[in-house]
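Hi there,

I know you've been waiting on this one. I reran it after we fixed the sequence typo, so this is the corrected version. Both the input and the resulting structure follow.
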Amino acid sequence: MNLTKLVQKRSNWVAPYVLFLVLFVVLPLLLIAVYAFRNPAGQFTVQNFVKFATQSEALSTFVYSVGIAIITTLLCILLGYPAAYILASSQFNRSRTMVLLFILPMWINVLMRSLATVALFDFLHLPLGEGALIFGLVYDFLPFMIYPIYNTIQKIDKSYIEAARDLGATNRQVFTRVIWPLSIPGIISGIMMVFLPTISTFAISEILTLNNKRLFGSIIQDNMMMSDTMNYGAALSLIMLVIIAITSAVSGDDSDLSEGGLI
């Protein structure tokens, strides 16, 4: 009888998820924070953050990673928004096959996609380097830009578009004054899903540039792999986590304002 009540009580079903969250999300984040403020001897220190601020290699790599992330994100928006807009139109939206073709690359491991890019550049006799890196990043993250924009445009109330046309708006005005503003939350979500992972990636840059161009994720990986610099790697990881948290909070507020101000 007690077992039946235990199973029927809905709150008890939350316990496994809470346990998983604590063990595999909260605890690792706490460990990163603890190691970031310690030296190899286990003593409290802020030297790891001072080292990041004063070491030219880490700072230059971080700035370079931000630049590559901005270029990749802009290219993904330029390529992804028209694709999402076309997919969300009535003639394409009826067929889920077209959407599936854009989402399908997300099912393939990123390393396999990167190796396929290397094979493509080799077939075309093109050199690997910064150009290959940007191409590979856009290829890998483009679906993450297309889907949130497509999902947002698809959910736009068609009565807004019909009302704008009834008031004499041209197709251009309908897009600039109705569709574009209402699709901004999807663009922000796409930026979040492209910009931040691009900064912290390391395998793609190592494969597509033969390890000649390094992103911030490579610096973190190198330091985390060595016991004497693991604390410094944890500090770099914590810096990246803080940036992600701040960006998420800011983009979340902007998304709410975009939706609330137009509907």
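Quick highlight: The chain has one domain: 63-260.

Best,
R. S.
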